[in-house]
Amino acid sequence: MLLFLILALLFSFSFPVEIFSEKLEKLPDGTYKAEGDVEAYYRDYYIKADLMTYDPQKRIVYAKGNVYIRSFDGRFEAKGREALLDLEKDTGYFLDTEGRFEKFNFSAKRVDKDGENYIVQEGSISTCPPDKKEMNLCFSRAHISQRYVFSQNNTLRLFKIPIVYLPISIFPVGERRSGLLPPTIGSNTYNSFIYQQPIYWAISPDKDATLTLDLRDKQAKGISLEYRQSMRKELDLVGLFSFYKEPTPPGKWWQGRDITTLRENRYRIKGDIDLNNLKAGIDLISDPYFLEDVYLTTKERTVPYLTSYINYTKEWDRFLFTFDLRRFYDTTSSNNKNTLQRLPEIGLYLKDQRLFDFLYFNLSTAYTNFYREEGSKAHRILIFPEFSVPKNILGLNFLSTITIENLLYLDVKGGDFKNKKVIGSVKYVERVPYFFNLNYGGFRTNNLVEFSYSYRPK
């Protein structure tokens, strides 16, 4: 029969330790020993174990066997083989433990508690769920406080495979906090040593910034500052400024390049702002080889072109107006004068209007200024009236559309457009959408299959 015993031991301004167990005895030295499904409550902690002892004189709790500890605020949770807590000094240790602190899941050979700080030895930490630890950080020793995690001799592992070694690492805990972020240390074809140290600054709840120091033994050394601000629920303003000092004379990475593009002061200016209907962005670099020399990942190094833009959209019940201005920077060419720009493109769309019971009409119009400093350029006017007829045949919904495509090129300079200033065509499209549902057990899907045929004469 389950014995339900409660031990309330008052001490230190009447903070109690409450112990529930199947068996409870008092040893000759005054220590209480509880066995069998032991549960204890102390201040903000819940403790469970197979065996537990409590020394009321020294105020020490010792737990062994399937030890489980949880804070009532939900910030800390751990289980392990053995634990000791000195309630007076607010210290203790856990052996062979794993658990969660804030957003971090951890495991360790030993965890020492000193007040609100923890020292973790021979452990690992990850933000991935315990059953899906694709990436974790292993270390020899870590100090966890209420604000930061500081670890030594780190190895970043992906699916248990070490990919990066970090001598030290420091990152914030809980809410956003200013501090050092994990650095990047490595090498590449032209540098035997690369060290990038990001420094995070939590300015306010809606603003933050990251300053990154970039040191290399051969190529350009530099600094980058990224600023972020949320004006509404989503991220609305992002700004980036990077500045690098290129060593002279030029290194071997300039072999085979257009040397006229060499700049001692190299930079990138990038920014984006989203004001709902109005969006704008700028992306400028000092030379076409900046991305290739500065960034480390293939995705960032091989961007074919950069875009600076202004976009405005206004919608009414019957019309949609768009303004789109885009300037492109070709990173694959040493000369951007041949790059075709869209300065600007203005569109006006008349939404579907019902002319008769069986006939609908819409109209797309646009003006585009195709501009480049060298090469062919022109102004284009687009007029696309479209007629559509929906119908039902044998229970299937058919949609027939005829679009009259008219393209008019004005002020054509260069290229082979001299005999093609007016281009016209007719496009016919027939669509048959088919909707159906599939049920398998408790799983249900809504599906759409569309058959279409289109024809445009040469």
Textual characterization of the structure:
With 458 residues, the chain is mostly beta strands. The protein has helices spanning 290-294, 298-301, and strands at 5-11, 15-21, 23-26, 32-42, 45-55, 60-71, 76-86, 91-101, 104-114, 117-126, 135-144, 148-158, 161-172, 179-180, 184-186, 194-204, 207-216, 221-229, 237-245, 265-275, 278-285, 305-315, 319-330, 341-356, 359-371, 377-393, 396-413, 422-440, 443-455. Among the domains are: 177-303, no CATH class; 331-457, no CATH class. Mean pLDDT is 86; it is low at 1-15. The longest helix has 5 residues, at 290-294. It has a 16-stranded antiparallel beta sheet that branches. Strands 1, 2, 3, 4, 5, 6, 7, 8, 9, 10, 11, 12 and 13 form a 13-stranded antiparallel beta sheet that branches. It is 2% helix and 68% strand.
Oligomer: single chain
Instruction: Provide mean pLDDT, rounded.
Output: 86
Report the radius of gyration as a whole number of Å: 34 Å
Beta-strand proportion: over 45%
What is the tally of helical segments? 2
Q: How many β-strand runs? A: 29
Structural class: mainly beta
Topology:
Elements: E1 5-11, E2 15-21, E3 23-26, E4 32-42, E5 45-55, E6 60-71, E7 76-86, E8 91-101, E9 104-114, E10 117-126, E11 135-144, E12 148-158, E13 161-172, E14 179-180, E15 184-186, E16 194-204, E17 207-216, E18 221-229, E19 237-245, E20 265-275, E21 278-285, H1 290-294, H2 298-301, E22 305-315, E23 319-330, E24 341-356, E25 359-371, E26 377-393, E27 396-413, E28 422-440, E29 443-455
Antiparallel strand pairs: 1-2, 2-4, 3-4, 4-5, 5-6, 6-7, 7-8, 8-9, 9-10, 10-11, 11-12, 12-13, 14-16, 15-16, 16-17, 17-18, 18-19, 19-20, 20-21, 21-22, 22-23, 23-24, 24-25, 25-26, 26-27, 27-28, 28-29
